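Lab notebook: predicted structure, single chain.

Context: the supervisor wants predicted structures on file for every construct in the current expression panel, including those that have not yet been purified. This is the next one on the list. No modifications to the sequence; it matches the entry in the shared construct table.
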Amino acid sequence: MKYLILLITCLGLLNNNSIDAGDPSIQAVCKITTKNNTTHEGFITLIKGGYCMLPNGFYFEIGDGKTYRKLYDFNFYSLQKTKDGIFNLGYSSFKAKRAYFITHTPHHGHFKKEQNDIAIDSKGKKLVSRKYNEFTYKLFDSIPLFKELPREYHLRYDKLENLTEKIAMSDIISVEIVKKPQQIWLDRIAKAKKLYWDDNDTEDSTGDFLEPTWYHELIQDQNKFNTLKDYYNKWKKL
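Prediction complete. Output recorded below exactly as produced.
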């Protein structure tokens, strides 16, 4: 019942014309700087929508079996790495031997206690986080930075070919979520959005009509930002 109430509340407050009852994904224009002081820009997903809000983020191997995980939330922090291998992430500062970019994959199952584990399957490493529900994350040793938006408008990390530039985590100095994207990225978003609605705004459409929310637009609408933030924080407590 709690889930149903949250779902209806979010939809009403967002005033979205969607027929589907899902939550919006939050996508962003991202700028990455690498060791040679080269900048790379493209699109990433901060929080994946659907029927709950599932954040992407970073996973660090600290050493001596210790790990640290930081997922995107509504602080929308930036990541910086110093020459000494110190990572600055939000209010955290620490040294790590290795870093991964992690994205959500479908979850299932129920567990009574929290634990982290690394699962190996035919598609590579996955991080399994258990806290009542089982959540799995795919670990990337590079950030797949989308240079173009796919036809479905929503970024999918199981469909990377020909759309992404893969930037090795070991080469990265900083990751910044762009507040004011350049016109070239705004034009690509507008083009993809139009195509998405052309594909879905018909009687025969099977689309969900729930387009992603863009970070640079979200931060300009304080009411919508606060509504989504409160909704996201309630989901985390369930």
